[in-house]
Design a protein that fits this description.
hydrogen ion transport; globular; 554 residues; transmembrane; mainly alpha; translocase
């Protein structure tokens, strides 16, 4: 994506200086989005390979005799369980640490949060540059880990993305150590970004922009930054203990030496459950702006929406052990975590019903971003989450495909759909060129149908008792697995089509000649700027009359 060059010094910058040494928040946001897209392509490819293997009973592709891309019934195939575990592990690690948070928080957050509050840039521009390049190092370490010697004398670490001991402490090779370092570096870049976001939000708002006149996306990114700042150091401590157990003879998680592997589960999930909301809260902000724009109405209940996000963030820190009902806990503990978990449905419901109220009576325009917002099926994942909040039911569904379906309705049809909504909503603003509407809508329908075909049948597989993370299964599970795999192929084709749409838009899309190419209800400050925005924005700070009429939330 290009940005307008405002003076002769900037015109002399080459490609390397512009993109590798930039401290401009807009350039860094674009870099985050581009790198997250590459990591996402790798992760989605691993997903398709998993679904190829699971389409039919028996092992056809992941063989000890060698990986295959075409099934050969006549050739011998000894199941390669390590390869399967590696594919599952790196799909999770890449998606959780290197795709969704960097795209929503690092990409859209860096680009639009300063614009929404009228700030010239981030508070610490050089720190912003450092956090991006640490992110690149983290992605590189993760890919290096995938290709490095691991267990069973094969590449990669096959322990699952949660890195549970004793699997992670006994896995041979240094692929496991590189994976832990990759997560460490990912945490460092997120913490640095969070410090920058918090400082910018609190200190660089436009004159007269009080806290409760800040747009919802900026609020979402700000609250997410606090969650990152409070939870990631806990994970850092846990995986540091893993490294110590692996390399320095400590026994934090080894029962033979007085350690406790369940301690790691508490550490991981104290970070892991807030992470779910770190992934989804920026998406909430994007969806709020998209719905308000295309319903042609101000968002309903602005203040309750802000308070609901803050409540979700707070409650996210006190429900972690609902992931651990089967690890053993007292009835009193289980009762508390059940009640606390179900309480999160209240602020989440406030957001969902506020979106519905915003659309009610509005003049809805079904452009591509609005389609993604309407298909934002986080609610389905939330409803199934209330189901498995019950300890008695969770004992039945734990480690079955019901959990896979629940989680991916939150992540894939939640956070990922929010990324697509934000991309189509803002790509014209970022690039100065607009996507073809027919192509965006075709991509939406392909992805919507494909994603639901993947994950909705997995609820049935879970109810039938199919365990997750298995390379093979009895023939009784074949019907829904076949449908799920067909959905994966459709979704993968739609993702490749999306990449084509992005490149077509950047190089041949219809030029955007107006600041606001949607309507008057796209009312945040970026819509007062040219498309694309100039290299330096708000060198003269916006006055209240520039934004207050549009931001008068009551």
């Amino acid at each position: 994506m290009s940005a307008q060059i405002s003076d002769s010094i900037e015109e002399k910058r080459g490609f390397f200086t512009r993109w590798f040494m930039s401290t401009n928040h807009k350039d860094i946001g674009v870099l985050y989005l581009f790198t997250a897209g590459l990591a996402g392509l790798i992760s989605v490819t691993l997903t398709v390979y998993m679904r190829m293997e699971l389409q039919h009973p028996g092992v056809q592709y992941m063989c000890l005799e060698g990986m295959r891309l075409v099934a050969d019934a006549a050739a011998e195939c000894t199941p390669n369980a390590h390869l399967w575990n590696v594919v599952v592990t790196y799909h999770g690690i890449l998606m959780m640490f290197f795709v969704v948070i960097p795209a929503l928080f690092g990409g859209f957050g860096n680009y639009f949060m300063p614009l929404h509050i009228g700030a010239p840039d981030m508070a610490f521009p050089r720190l912003n540059n450092l956090s991006y390049w640490l992110y690149v190092c983290g992605v590189s370490l993760a890919i290096a880990s995938l290709l490095s010697p691991g267990g069973s004398d094969q590449p990669g670490a096959g322990v699952g993305w949660v890195l549970y001991p004793p699997l992670s402490t006994t896995e041979a090779g240094y692929a496991m150590d590189l994976a832990i370092f990759a997560v460490h570096v990912s945490g460092a870049t997120s913490i640095l970004g969070a410090i920058n976001i918090i400082t910018t939000f609190l200190n660089m708002r436009a004159p007269g922009m009080t806290l409760f006149k800040v747009p919802l996306f900026a609020w979402a990114v700000f609250i997410t930054a606090w969650m990152i700042l409070l939870s990631l150091p806990v994970l850092a401590g846990g995986i540091t203990m893993l490294l110590m157990d692996r390399n320095f003879g400590t026994q934090f998680f080894d029962p033979a030496g007085g350690g406790d592997p369940v301690l790691y589960q508490h550490i991981l999930w104290f970070f892991g459950h807030p992470e779910v909301y770190m992934l989804i809260l920026p998406g909430f902000g994007i969806i709020s702006h998209v719905i308000s724009t295309f319903a042609r109405k101000p968002i309903f209940g602005y203040l309750p929406m802000v308070l609901a996000m803050a409540a979700i963030a707070f409650l996210g820190f006190i429900v972690w052990a609902h992931h651990m009902y089967t690890a053993g806990m007292s009835l009193t503990q289980q009762t508390y975590f059940q009640m606390a978990t179900m309480t999160i449905a209240v602020p989440t419901g406030i957001k969902v019903f506020s979106w519905i109220a915003t659309m009610w009576g509005g003049s809805i325009e079904f452009k591509t971003p609005m389609l993604w917002a309407l298909a934002f099926l986080f609610t389905v994942g939330g409803v199934t989450g209330v189901v498995i909040a019950q300890g008695s039911l969770d004992r039945v569904y734990h480690d079955t495909y019901y959990i896979v379906a629940h989680f991916h309705y939150v992540m894939s049809l939640g956070a990922l759909f929010a990324i697509f909504a934000g991309t189509y909503y803002w790509i014209g603003k970022m690039s100065g060129r607009q996507y073809p509407e027919w192509a965006g809508q075709l991509h939406f329908w392909m992805m919507f149908i494909g994603s639901n075909l993947i994950f909705f049948p997995q609820h049935f597989l879970g109810r039938q008792g199919m365990p997750r993370r298995y390379i093979d299964y009895p023939v009784e599970f074949s019907y829904w697995n076949n449908i799920s795999s067909i959905g994966a192929y459709i979704s993968f084709a739609s993702f490749l089509f999306f990449i084509g749409i992005v490149f077509y838009t950047l190089f041949a899309g219809k030029p955007v000649n107006v600041p606001n190419y949607w309507n008057e209800h796209a009312d945040t400050l970026e819509w007062t700027l040219p498309s694309p925005p100039p290299e330096h924005t708000f060198e003269t700070l916006p006055k209240p009359e520039d934004w207050d009429r549009a931001q008068a939330h009551r």
